[in-house]
Write a sequence for this structure.
């Protein structure tokens, strides 16, 4: 009897030791996998950024193509391939026009920035004049020590990068539309289970619906805000009205901080051209009121409960993707966060992550989806132990 108790105790100790080793190995493998993925994200960011944008553009137009292809004009119906070609042509034209506009405005700003360099440095220093002449002179010396020409050359070099990335995005979009017919079949063959493939397809559809609504609403609000800033700059007869409107449109896609940065830049540009504090303060107030009204009142009304993301989680996502992919990563931070939250909400082991990322702790309320049955390695510890000791 004593021998049996001793054997059971040794078996329990061995099982506990194996469980701890197994968990430690799991954590170590997870850390190594994260490091490898992070390395690949940084090294292949040019291609991955283009691919992510292409997937978003594809998802935005895919539903529209399905609706167009189902329409009938008399006895004729628009073929799916024809609608796809028209969509690719429309996306390519829009991207090239936007890229051309961005590059032209970038060249305009860069060509005239050097003439405003001294004025800009003095304007920034004058903002600290209320703290004393010594502080003002110190700030002026600090600003003058910054090599603006180097930043201008770096910004000018981005023009070729923008055009190359636009071409790559167009290629990715074209191939995605070319293979969209076989996505369902590929998913079923990949999952080897029709029911599981339907669950995964429903989750992907939920991600697409939320991201599309977010981008459409954000695009509408950003367009109206950018046009309002353009009108504001034009009323005061200031230069760079188009550039500031375009900057505001782009920066508004960065949640929380984008609108603040855009407002400060617009105010600084106005203050450099019209060195009168009253005018700069007026422009700051008008631009800030526009951003607040559209971003904090109209935007939530149109967005509804589409995202339900944690504000702190958004800041963390912005910081992470900004560090990995720079400004493009900050644009994509919210769509990536939505995708992670929805996927984790349907995996039992990862649901706590979805709860943390959601605003109210309810990450998925759009419609009930079956829970993905992902095997949990930690749940088979007893089987692993039996194999290890030769019981099986």
């Amino acid at each position: 009897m004593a021998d049996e108790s001793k054997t059971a105790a040794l078996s329990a100790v061995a099982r506990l030791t194996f469980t701890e080793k197994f968990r430690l190995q799991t954590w170590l493998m997870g850390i190594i996998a994260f490091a490898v993925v992070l390395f690949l994200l940084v090294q292949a960011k040019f291609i991955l950024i283009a691919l992510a944008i292409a997937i978003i553009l594809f998802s935005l137009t895919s539903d529209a193509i399905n609706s167009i292809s189902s329409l009938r004009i008399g006895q004729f119906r628009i073929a799916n391939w024809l609608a796809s070609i028209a969509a690719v042509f429309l996306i390519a034209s829009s991207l090239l026009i936007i890229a051309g506009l961005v590059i032209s405005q970038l060249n305009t700003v860069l060509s005239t920035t050097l003439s405003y360099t001294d004025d800009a440095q003095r304007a920034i220093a004058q903002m600290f004049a209320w703290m004393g002449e010594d502080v003002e002179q110190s700030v002026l010396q600090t600003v003058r020590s910054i090599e603006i020409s180097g930043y201008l050359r770096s910004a000018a070099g981005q023009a070729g990068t923008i055009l190359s990335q636009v071409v790559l995005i167009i290629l990715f979009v074209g191939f995605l539309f070319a293979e969209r017919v076989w996505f369902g079949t590929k998913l079923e063959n990949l999952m080897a289970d029709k029911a599981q493939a339907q669950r995964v397809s429903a989750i992907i559809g939920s991600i697409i619906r939320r991201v599309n609504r977010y981008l459409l609403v954000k695009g509408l609000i950003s367009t109206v805000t950018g046009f309002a800033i353009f009108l504001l700059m034009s009323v005061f007869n200031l230069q760079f009205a188009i550039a500031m409107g375009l900057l505001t449109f782009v920066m508004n896609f960065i949640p929380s901080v984008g609108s603040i940065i855009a407002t400060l830049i617009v105010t600084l540009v106005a203050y450099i051209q019209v060195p009168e504090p009253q005018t700069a303060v007026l422009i700051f107030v008008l631009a800030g009121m526009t951003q607040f009204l559209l971003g904090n009142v109209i935007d939530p009304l149109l967005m509804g409960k589409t995202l339900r993301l944690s504000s702190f989680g958004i800041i963390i996502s912005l910081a992470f993707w900004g560090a990995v992919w720079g400004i493009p990563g900050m644009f994509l931070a919210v769509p990536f966060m939505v995708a992670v939250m929805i996927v984790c909400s349907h995996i039992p082991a990862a649901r706590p992550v979805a709860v943390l990322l959601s605003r109210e702790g309810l990450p998925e309320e759009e419609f009930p989806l079956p829970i993905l049955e992902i095997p949990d390695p930690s749940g088979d510890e007893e089987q692993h132990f039996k194999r290890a000791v030769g019981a099986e």
